[in-house]
From TrEMBL:
Swiss-Prot/TrEMBL keywords: Cell membrane, Ion transport, Manganese, Membrane, Transmembrane, Transmembrane helix, Transport
Protein name per Swiss-Prot or TrEMBL: Putative manganese efflux pump MntP
Designated gene of the protein: mntP
Signal sequence residues: none
Reported function: Probably functions as a manganese efflux pump.
UniProt entry tagged with the keyword Ribosomal protein: no
Location(s) in or outside the cell: Cell membrane
Pfam families named in the record: Mntp
Lineage: Bacteria, Pseudomonadati, Campylobacterota, Epsilonproteobacteria, Campylobacterales
Length: 186
């Protein structure tokens, strides 16, 4: 996976956390540096942790499924992409809770990073620099969430569905790219 593809993947994975950060910003009356750090660290940290865990799971089973690894990566990325796009079409409002408490943030961070766990499984079958991928996924998510918190606080949440649609589309395209390149150019 090239550097540009890792950046695109990182941006796509960050979209769920971006959308939730928009909601958090929308529901918060005032924001402090502490709020930005909490949102960035929770979401960025979990988005980096989950692919690492997924990678470990994938490596554990790689010898059993090496012949179909490209199909697994394709199915996981396309499934996650369609799920994100479906969520983008749903007219769901943001929760009114403006809490940045441990339990709330932990739950949101885990919920928005489940797709990153599945992507981490696909990393075990692709040529990916895991360290670079985790750094990009965590860093880009951190930045996106800090920016989303500010945007949400200023402008509301009308960008939420667009972020999920874009992220889902990128994941679907990456899934097809992996499958096509393996079937026709491997």
């Amino acid at each position: 996976m090239s550097f540009i593809e890792l950046i695109l993947l990182s941006c796509a994975l960050a979209m769920d956390a971006f959308a939730v950060s928009l909601c958090k910003g929308f529901s918060a009356k005032t924001l402090t540096l502490k709020h930005y750090l909490i949102v960035g660290i929770y979401f960025g940290g979990f988005q980096a942790l989950m692919p690492a865990l997924g990678f470990l799971v994938g490596v554990s089973f790689s010898s059993f499924i090496q012949k179909i690894d490209h199909w697994i990566a394709f199915v996981l990325l396309v499934f996650i992409g369609f799920k994100m796009m479906k969520e983008g079409f749903e007219k769901e409002s943001c929760p009114s809770d403006d809490g940045f408490h441990f339990k709330t943030m932990l739950t949101l961070a885990i919920a928005t990073s489940i797709d990153a766990l599945a992507v981490g499984v696909s990393f075990a079958f692709l040529q990916v620099s895991l360290t670079l991928a985790l750094f990009l996924i965590g860093g880009i998510t951190f930045i996106f969430c800090v920016v989303a918190l500010k945007i949400g606080n200023r402008f509301g949440v009308y960008l939420k569905s667009k972020a999920e649609l874009l992220g889902g589309g990128v994941l679907i395209l990456l899934g097809f790219k992996i499958l096509i390149s393996h079937l026709f150019w491997a």
